[in-house]
């Protein structure tokens, strides 16, 4: 019994086979202590005995946390079947715990990444809004305005509420629009990663 308790402190068990009759501490006493320890409180215990247990002893074993009895002589196939059920259950529980830990880790990493992205976007917004002498705005891949800084509002005369969501061809002359310049500029930017050009741009007042 004492040896079983020492092992419990250093090892994880899927199931415990515990002799009822042992010198010093018997199996029932050992089982009670095993199940009082948080580390081993839920470990199933199968009692093994060479004597036929009467109903009182059976009840006592179940009260101490036993889940089954095995009587000697032990039939190997029965022992293997009983133990394998608990081992498979234990391995499944370990796998579920690992998956839960991995999910928690991934969620924590995702939260950290999202927080870093949020801070980066906020820093970018503060930086862009602080630039007063250049109109800086972003487009989506379809050419719609998705951001608008203070200088863009002052230079182009559109408020953010008026222009965000509209196509950037609004800033081109009628002639350039007829020649397809906005679309060509967008195609080059998407294909090459950037596009530079000089030309007239039209403010809100024309």
Q: List the helices and strands in order.
A: HEHEHEHEEHHHH
Query: Looking at the structure, what is the overall shape?
Result: rod-shaped
Strand tally is 5
Strand content: 5-15%
Overall SS class: mainly alpha
Q: How do the strands of the widest beta sheet line up side by side?
A: 1-2-3
Average pLDDT, all residues: 87
Which stretches are poorly predicted, pLDDT < 50 over at least 5 residues? Answer: none
Alpha-carbon distance between the termini? 94 Å
How does this model look, in words?
- The chain has 206 residues and is mostly helical.
- The chain has eight helices and five strands; from the N terminus they run H-E-H-E-H-E-H-E-E-H-H-H-H.
- A three-stranded parallel sheet has the order 1-2-3, with helices on one face. It has a two-stranded antiparallel sheet with strand order 4-5.
- The protein is rod-shaped and about 105 Å long.
């Amino acid at each position: 019994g004492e040896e079983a308790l020492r092992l419990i402190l250093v090892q994880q068990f899927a199931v415990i086979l515990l002799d009822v009759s042992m010198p010093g501490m018997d199996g029932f006493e050992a089982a009670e202590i095993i199940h009082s320890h948080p580390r081993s409180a839920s470990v199933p215990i199968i009692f093994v005995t060479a004597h036929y247990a009467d109903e009182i002893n059976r009840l006592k074993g179940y009260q101490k946390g036993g889940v089954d009895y095995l009587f000697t002589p032990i039939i190997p196939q029965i022992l293997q079947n009983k133990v394998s059920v608990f081992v498979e259950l234990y391995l499944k529980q370990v796998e579920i715990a690992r998956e839960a830990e991995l999910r928690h880790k991934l969620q924590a990493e995702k939260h950290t990444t999202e927080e870093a992205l949020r801070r980066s976007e906020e820093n970018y917004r503060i930086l862009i809004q602080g630039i007063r002498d250049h109109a800086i705005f972003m487009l989506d891949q379809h050419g719609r305005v998705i951001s608008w800084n203070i200088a863009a509002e002052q230079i182009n005369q559109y408020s953010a509420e008026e222009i965000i969501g509209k196509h950037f061809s609004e800033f081109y002359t009628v002639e350039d629009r007829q020649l397809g310049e906005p679309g060509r500029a967008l195609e080059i930017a998407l294909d090459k990663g950037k596009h530079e050009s000089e030309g007239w741009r039209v403010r809100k007042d024309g």
